[in-house]
């Protein structure tokens, strides 16, 4: 399927065309696998989530109306697939409502200047599940704390607290990495 437009592939997928599905899979899998891996930190489980995400994507592709990018629409499906897995396994609940959080250090932006992308991603994946999930949703995916709370069944305060704690943990890990 060389030189076929994305819209043509989508239209063919809506008709159940296997070659078009394979082309969409080949296009999206390299970007969606790391997304799944960021949420579950286990390659085998991330591969399962990737496959589940594609099953959902192809079963719901008829609902894609072309509003917004296809990649953005697909990304939401994979994030939702990962979140459903985490919710089903009660992996999100790291804490109840917490009314306060540690203050962030002003050194954080200076610390990040000397760390590479791969090192940062490794540190993010080492966070506890709840902290990592909220961090991914807010910082990487751009969801608000209200949206995160709705998606995860937690309060906005809990979302904010988990993000704050994730940042503190990351700062500590970055400091340790720099001191080695």
Amino-to-carboxy terminus distance:
50 Å
Query: Ranges with pLDDT <50 over ≥5 residues?
Result: 94-112
Number of strands: 0
* Average pLDDT taken over every residue: 85
| Strand proportion | under 5%
Q: Looking at the chains present, what oligomeric state does this protein adopt?
A: single chain
Radius of gyration: 18 Å
Task: Quickly give the structural class.
Answer: mainly alpha
- Number of contiguous helices: 9
Helix content: over 70%
Order of helices and strands: HHHHHHHHH
Shape by Cα distribution = globular
Q: Report the biggest beta sheet as strand number plus sense, adding barrel if it closes.
A: none
Provide keyphrases for this structure:
about 180 residues; 9 helices
Describe the protein's architecture and organization:
The structure is a single chain. This protein is mainly α and 180 residues long. The chain is built from 9 helices and no strands. The protein has helices spanning 6-14, 18-40, 43-60, 70-88, 108-112, 117-125, 129-140, 145-152, 156-179.
Q: Topology of this protein?
A:
Blueprint: H1 6-14, H2 18-40, H3 43-60, H4 70-88, H5 108-112, H6 117-125, H7 129-140, H8 145-152, H9 156-179
Summarize this entry quickly.
With 180 residues, the protein is mainly α. The chain has helices at 6-14, 18-40, 43-60, 70-88, 108-112, 117-125, 129-140, 145-152, 156-179.
